[in-house]
Amino acid sequence: MLTPEDIKEIASKGISEETFEEQLNRFKTGFPYLKIKAVATVGNGIMRFDGEEEQSCQQAWDKFLTDGGTVEKFVPASGAASRMFKNLFEFVSAGVEEPTTDFMKSFFAGIENFAFYKALDAACTKVYGKGVKALVADGKPVEVVKCLITGEGMNYGAMPKGLLQFHKVGEEVHTPVEEHLEEGAQYATDKDKQVNIHFTVSPEHRSAFEALIGEKVPEMEKKWGVKYSVSLSEQKASTDTVAVTMDNVPYRENGKLLFRPAGHGALIENLNDMNADVVFVKNIDNVVPASLREATVKYKKVIGGYLVKVQKQIKEYVEALRSGKYTIEDLRTMVKFLHDTLNVRNEQTKNLDDSELALYLLKKFNRPIRVCGVVKNDGEPGGGPYIAYNADGTTSPQILESAQFDKSKPESVELIKSGSHFNPVDLVCYIKDVDGNKFDLKKYVDKDTGLISEKSKSGVTIKALELPGLWNGSMSDWNTVFVEVPIATFNPVKTVNDLLRPQHQG
Prior knowledge:
alpha/beta, Spore Coat Polysaccharide Biosynthesis Protein SpsA, Chain A, 3-stranded antiparallel beta sheet, 16 helices
């Protein structure tokens, strides 16, 4: 039973009582596993372009910008870097004096190659009166790690990845925020020489992001000859979800309901607030130094150009369908485009008469569009490209996580294993309709694709509800195209030692 205080709190977050009840019900019913038709592969759901096609796409992208198309980079950057330093926290709490694991041995062997080494050395000197090398020589590597990850020193373990020193560029050090600013200047500059970039951040770190951006933007504008428009937003409180006990009863702390952020799927609300025609979506940690950025820039233009080509074709078809000026042959051509380019199929369409088919095509065409760069799977964890069944009987390309598969079934396990490609969160989205009006992106979410996970809170196991992922169920009802891009475009930093890879050493 909800108390008057509960009702007041729910309302203060912008959550309706109906939504609250829906959340509680989800814990009881759970989420269905998705029915998968096939793994997406090259020739079956994934496009692979030759050199000529890549060039054509790049030209299409350049023309889109020259003709006045609007573009924005959207960068989820709110997560803390705590997982990036998991091994270091374990080392500090292990009670050992020397590194014993391969991970920690690699960390200390390469410590001078980290971009943050100079800052760490200074922090150690300030806190302990000795630099990194002297502390290690004295048998005090734990103090070095403490200085990096805890509030005693640099506090990297509690900071967001976007603000960490990732790369050495000559005498400079660059954060992911700076790398994204530079990227934007290289492929997302409009005809007025403006670069629009949006970061989603956590409230407690917003001022630090603002300070860094305020410091770096004038330098970047001078370097690249552009003007930046950088905006920030936070995950909306209205997207938080209630936590429950293992018996599906709302969990309370000091008598108050516990609400939790509902994962990156909540950011569909933030994406929905963007005003550009085209929005690039890319995670904060997938960046490289300028010397290695050529592939990234090229393939951003390739997938952006292919997106505007697809959108142009859809616009022509929608206008023809609306006007009624089409032949039976035109309808066949449109069906072929729906099948071969958008990979949307429905066996029932063959039973539709011409007018019914026209309405079906109109409905399928006039949706948000995304082109997703996918890379060959090299064992990185995460979602992948599949062809899945939808509620209306169609099959379409979807990015799926392993949690969405029923692992009790051998065929599902086999599907996970046999995936040839990986989703690196390299998306470019067209979020306006053919008339230039913004889509309401919330209408295209499949609410049946959320996740329930178990968490620990004050020593108690509780259940948490995650909304459909941003590039998973939140974009379920979009037109989706997968395009193969090279592994050189995918350089995430999941652990601190990833920064020692050649891709991050420049």
